[in-house]
Specification:
2 helices, flat, three-stranded antiparallel beta sheet, Immunoglobulin-like, mainly beta
């Protein structure tokens, strides 16, 4: 009979990894399990924020832009019933996305479709790269 104890050898590392995830010094919005999950992408003109918030009504979402960040606040209302398992989070949530670039605050657009909140943040003209001509002597 062979008893495989190899999974126990790795247990201290796995436990450390779990504890680091929950007790890391980063803010809640930067943790692996932050809600809502977001994707950030950019092109030359805009920054795009795509947040997954299925089941949340558009009236229960609040977007705020400050000098350095976009704040997504909202509430997912829980449905009544007897649950055997409940894996989708409910209640109040807040996600802060730090932006390291100036945004044209007057032209921000947001839409909610199929549970995906898309926020288009146009870059300010001052923050866009400018090509510099090189003179030849």
């Amino acid at each position: 009979m062979v008893i495989d104890l190899s999974t126990f050898y790795d247990m201290p590392r796995q436990l450390d990894k779990l504890l680091d995830t929950f007790f890391s010094p980063t803010t809640i919005s930067q943790r692996k399990f932050a809600y809502p999950p977001v994707n950030l992408k950019e092109d030359e003109e805009n920054i795009y924020v795509l947040a997954e918030i299925p089941g949340v009504d558009i009236n229960d979402i609040e977007l705020t832009i400050t000098d350095g960040s976009l704040v997504i606040k909202g509430e997912r209302k829980s449905e009544k019933g007897n649950y055997y398992r409940q894996e989708r989070p409910n209640g109040l949530f807040q996600r802060i996305i730090n932006l390291n670039i100036d945004i044209d605050k007057d032209n921000i657009k947001a839409k909610l479709k199929d549970g995906i909140l898309e926020v288009v943040l146009p870059k300010a003209k001052e923050s866009k790269p400018k090509k510099i001509a090189i003179e030849q002597n």
